[in-house]
Amino acid sequence: METGPVKAEWSRRELLAAAGGAAAALCLPGCREEEVPGAIPRPGPPLESLQIRGYSRLLELPWFEAGPQGEVIVRAEALPPGVDFHAHLAMRFFLAPSVDLQAGPGPVRYVMACDDREPPCLVDLDRYLNHLADGSMLSEVRSEMSRSLVLGGPAARTHTIPNLLAEMDRCGVGTAVLLAIAPGLPFRDDITSTWLDAVAAAGAEERLVVFGSVHPRRDGAADQLRALHRAGIQGIKLHPTMQRFHPDDPEAMALYEVCEELGLPVFFHAGRAGIEPGFTQDYATLDHYVAPAVEFPNVRFVFGHAGARDFDDALVVARDHANVWMDIQGQGVTDLRRMLTELGPERLVFGSDWPWYPIAVNLAKLFIATDGDRRARDLVFAENARQLLARG
Known about the structure:
By secondary structure, the protein is of the alpha/beta class. It has one domain (22-31, 49-390): Metal-dependent hydrolases (TIM Barrel, Alpha-Beta Barrel), CATH 3.20.20. It is built from 12 helices and 12 strands. The radius of gyration is 19 Å and the shape is globular.
């Protein structure tokens, strides 16, 4: 089901502006890492023991072992079959060629390709994860994202269903939630239907759950959301910085009303990541997420990245509203322990942001933060997400 544009008619200038806006929100070439004004600084230097040189060094932790090809595998006794609430497949928009989502299995090139560098980048498990990217890595990431709009990126060709399923098996993940995005381009803007069709073709409906996306300002957005629900989505993904809207805009509030009607959870990209261009950052500040939680108490909202670099503000909103869950993806061990203590393990879900990062690097943080508390670990990795999905 290919969707229409946000506007009914597009001039050449408007078309280029829309593509440029989507590219800028992805932080493509020409962007630079922006400081997040007003964000509370992270604590002082993290523990040396939480710093590793590359993803492969996770094998030094007691919960992992090496597979036949040296790949990182979670030890069988470490976890029950879990849910990764934050995953993606290859994205292609606008002029980029399609990706064969059935290709593989084979080696995965992560967007944040830490181990492809010499030396591998420093992974600090006590900091927000995208801090690992230095200037040259960010340039590579922006190039890959730019290609997703025009030429198609080489890394994206490895972001396929067989590769995701293989990594899920290595990491004890039974189910993954695929988060689509509709950036608001005039054509080839809908990957939700592409992913739904690909999952069905792979016979993977029992393992891969699709959260669809619509642009809040698209004409007929509510009807499109209902159509995607009939097609099989189990939730909706919204990305304020990439889609260029505030979560409390009237058009977005109208979509939450449909989600309440259909029983669909809403997964937000929440907070400022710090690598997006400055002009998009206001869309994701946490003050804009309060009204949806207040006015729609029966809608389940999940804050992706636990608020990213606005973690402290996101934690306050979640504490104050029982219909808000936090996706722990990217956050450091110290802040994950804060979530467990101040919010409780019952409203946290595990996410990896695959294929930006390996599943195992986020699992390592969960293992460390819940060491000695198997009940909390099981809630975050499996039970909470299954309850959220069962109510859909």
